[in-house]
Amino acid sequence: MTITRFETGTRMSQAVVHNGTVYLAGQVADHVSNNEGVEAQTKDILAQIDALLASVGSDKTRLLSATIYLADMSTFAEMNRAWDGWVAAGHAPARATVEAKLAGPQYRVEISVIAATGA
Fold first, then answer.
1. 85-108 pLDDT, tens per residue?
2. Hey, what's the signal peptide range on this chain (predicted)?
3. Are 71 and 102 in contact (CB under 8 A)?
């Protein structure tokens, strides 16, 4: 059984593929400011997820699971506006959304997904 790691650094890999499944690290927005809202950060993250999935031969129609971390659960509806516009119709993954203290105050949302590969 082969384990393939992508964009590997000292601390973590952005994606790991094993046995037809891709595991993505938690993704946060690349371009954040303290004034940027959850919907904008979510859209940024979802674009990153699209790119990472494509780089390993998968896409959002192959999502199995998603975990969404919000710094403030009162922004749940704002995050869902971006999510609902992105998730492929008929391909919604199992999903959990929780409130959590994130790595820095500029981050308002973090998303991690697991997907099947195209192989």
1. 999 999 999 999 999 999 998 999
2. none
3. yes
CATH number of the domain encompassing residue 72: 3.30.1330.40
Tens-place pLDDT, residues 16-63: 999 999 999 999 998 776 667 999 999 999 999 999 999 999 999 999
Domain span at 46: 3-116
pTM, rounded to two decimals: 0.94
